[in-house]
DNA sequence: ATCAAATATATAAATATTCATATATTTGAG
DNA sequence: CTCAAATATATGAATATTTATATATTTGAT
């Protein structure tokens, strides 16, 4: 239906298009983390974290390393951190301009 | 349910997560285009283009300029072009590693 | 005022995603 | 071999997105 490459790129962005997955990736920007680490840091249950990690794995956005019974996740490519940082710049520049959004930003960290 | 900022960022990436919307954005990287321009360049019907443009507008990813009866669309922020370019680098680096994908790339342009 | 061109919106069926809950799997310790 | 810890997967109902088709709206020309 569409060119496979565009389909593929779309899948990549779709994988980033989820709040919990974004938070997970932000955690991974600072280095590899186990599922338990993420679960604790984000305050969500194990199953939800694993579910979203599975999606990031499928899309080749994260990589895993297994040590005993714990699995460590990391960004597959440091450029993904850059991408997230660039996205942050875009938000800061232009995209957030409704009053409601500004208000949210005033009380929330980036 | 989630922090509004993360929700907002997710919406941004979700908006990029669609093949036709990506192709539209790639067109806009080279400068502003009317709906008719896009329609012709992409070979899709008017309604589909407008529908997808509406989504990009809603998410503040594109901006419009009206001249008579034609509407010109452009990227809202040049950083969006950078983001797409960075995404391309990521694909070229790592993300495309299945045999099927390499095969597709060999016969398709980026 | 009417018409045609350009663009936008409405609708709804098909499809995909989300999210909570339950259950499996894998691994090392004892 | 059994158990518990850590992680993954299955399931399905609720919700959201996609996509095709039809219809509106807006604008400038005549």
From TrEMBL, chains A, B:
Cited SMART domains: HTH_ARSR
PANTHER family, per the entry: ARSENICAL RESISTANCE OPERON REPRESSOR ARSR-RELATED (PTHR43132:SF2)
Native species: Candidatus Chloroploca asiatica
Annotated SUPFAM superfamilies: Winged helix' DNA-binding domain (SSF46785)
Protein name: Transcriptional regulator
Coiled coil: none
Pfam families: HTH_5 (PF01022)
Keyword Glycoprotein part of the UniProt annotation: no
Alphabetical keyword list: DNA-binding, Transcription, Transcription regulation
PROSITE patterns (alphabetical): HTH_ARSR_2
UniProt-recorded Gene Ontology molecular function terms: DNA binding; DNA-binding transcription factor activity
Stretches assigned to the HTH arsR-type domain: 1-95
Keyword Repeat: no
